[in-house]
Automatic annotation (TrEMBL):
GO CC, alphabetical: cytoplasmic vesicle
Entry protein name: Vacuolar ATPase assembly integral membrane protein VMA21
An individual GO BP term: vacuolar proton-transporting V-type ATPase complex assembly
InterPro entries: Vma21 (IPR019013)
Pfam families tied to this protein: VMA21
Length: 60
């Protein structure tokens, strides 16, 4: 979770924004939010699968 935003910062500061650290920091924040959103999404999907599994066991 931490590698993506940090590497995004260093890659974008050098190659995309040509030394502009403010834009690189914004890119890293965006990457962190994407990672966090993916984590939350997977938690919801996993929870739904677990609930479906419990409901299936109760039906038997």
């Amino acid at each position: 979770m931490a590698i993506v935003p940090i590497s995004t910062y260093f890659v974008t500061v050098r190659h995309l924004w040509n030394g502009n650290t403010a834009y690189a920091a914004l890119s890293a924040v965006l990457a962190a939010n994407i990672v966090l959103g993916g984590y939350v999404y997977l938690a919801f999907v996993e929870d739904a699968a677990t609930k479906a599994e419990v409901q299936e066991k109760k039906a038997q």
